[in-house]
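Morning - pyridoxal-5'-phosphate inputs below, output right after.
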Amino acid sequence: MDDLLYKSTRSDDYTVTASQAILKGLADDGGLFVPVFLPKLDVSLEELCKMSYKEVAYAVMKQFLTDFTKEELTTCIDKAYDSKFDTPDIAPLVEADGAYYLELFHGKTIAFKDMALSILPHLMTTSAKKNQVTNDIVILTATSGDTGKAAMAGFADVPNTKIIVFYPKGGVSPIQEKQMLTQKGNNTYVVGIKGNFDEAQTAVKQLFNDEALEKELDDAGFQFSSANSINIGRLVPQIVYYVYAYTRLLRDQKIAEDEKINVVVPTGNFGNILAAYYAKNMGLPIGKLICASNDNKVLYDFFSTGVYDKNRDFILTTSPSMDILVSSNLERLLYKISGASSKVDKDLMGQLNTIGHYEITDDMRKELKDFYGNYAEEIETAETIKNLYESTGYVIDTHTAVAATVYNKYKQETGDETTTVIASTASPFKFTRSVMDAIDPNYDDLSDFQLVDELSKIANVKVPGAIEEIRTAPILHDTVVEVAGMKDAVKKILGL
Ligand SMILES: *Cc1c(COP(=O)(O)O)cnc(C)c1O
C-alpha cells in the first residue's frame, strides 16, 4: 500500500509523510496538515472488541501513520500506555445517570491531554530518526492549563528535545499552575505571560512562522515543533479512545452490532471532537457529535448561524481549558466540509486573521448536520456537578460538567435517547475548588489541599498520584514576560 500523505489545509502545493507532518507541526503556509483522504478501519468492530487499549491504538493509528513500521508504532504505543496510567483499562467507561462517562484522565497529569501527549514524544523522536534530523527538537507550546503540564510530563528528559511552555498568568487554576511550576526535567521551561491564552497561541504561531528565527535556530542546532493539538501526532492518538469506547459498549452488550452512539465533547480548541469526527469517518457508528462550550460560546454561535466571530469579550470561567476564542482545529473541519478546498479554507482563515470573523456557505453548513452545538453557563455547570453528585455519588470536573449540561439540553430539545458517551476530560481533583464550591459553598474556607482530602472522602476516590506529588514539591520555574517578550524569552532559554 502507498503511504497516506498529508497536505496543508491552505494550499495544494506539496505533500509530506505522516512522520514529516509530526515533525513540522504546522505547514509552511500556516495551514494545518490533513491526510489527503480519511482512512477507514480495516479491522471489524467484533475483532476490536477483543483487543486491549494498545491493540486498538495500533489498529487505528496504523491507518494514519502509514510510514511507521509495525515495530516503530508498537514501540511508541508500548512506551506510552503503560503503568503511567493508573488503570489497565487506560480509558474506563463509567455509567452515571443514563450516560457513559469516558474517563480520559487516568494518565500522569489527570487530564485528557495525557492520552495523546504520552505518545507524542515517542512519535516525534521516531519521526526525527526516520527523517535523518540531527537538530534538537524544541517544542513550543501555548497552554490554557492542561496541555502545558501534560506536554512537559511527556517530554521531560526525552533526549534531543527541549520544551518551552507559555501559559496565561492568572488564567489557569492554582493546581494547574503548581503542577507546571514544579515540573522536573533539565529540558523543561515554563513561562507565564501577561495576556490570555489566545494571545499566547497567536504569538507562538508567529514564532513558528518567523523565518529569520528558524534560520538562527538551525545554525544553533535546533528546530521548532509543536505539541499543541494542531499536531497530527496529537490528533491521531485521540481517535483511538472513541473506537475503544464503542467497542467496550459493544463487548459488554450495552449496544447492539452497528448501533449508533452519540458523543458529547467539552470543546475548546476543537481537537478532541475533531478526533471523534475522524473516528466517525473511519466507519465507527457515531450519530451526533455534540459540541459543548462554556460561556466562550463562539462554537455554539458558529453551529447555529454559520458565522464564526472571535470579536467578543474573553470570559474567564471555571472550565479554563475551554476558555478559547480561536478553535484552531476547526480549520480541519472547514477544509473537510468545503470539499477539501484549500482556496476556501485559506480565504476563511484570512478573514479570521484580518477582520476576526467569517461566514460559511449554505452548502458547507449542510455538511455540519451531524454536529449539535450548545453551551453551559457557569451556574448551570455548577448545578450539574451538584445534581449528579447528589443523585449518583459520582463527581465530575467542571469541563465534563459543561458537557453533561449540554447533553441534558440536547436530550430535552430533541428527545433523542441514543446511547451516549460523554468525554470526561479531567479529574475533579484537578479543579477541586470549583468542584467543591459547586457541591457546597461552605467548603470555601478550606485550603486547596484540605479540599482535595475532602473531595476524596465524599467521592470515595483515592487522591490521584499527580496531586499527592505536588503537595510538597518545590517551585522550579518563575519566569513571567509580556506577550511581546516571548521571542526574547525563547532566545534566552536556547542561548541564542
Ligand atoms: C484541552 C481540554 C479541553 C478541550 O479540548 P480541545 O481538544 O481543545 O477541544 C476540555 N477539557 C479539558 C480538561 C482539557 O484539558
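Note: The longest helix spans residues 232-251.

O.
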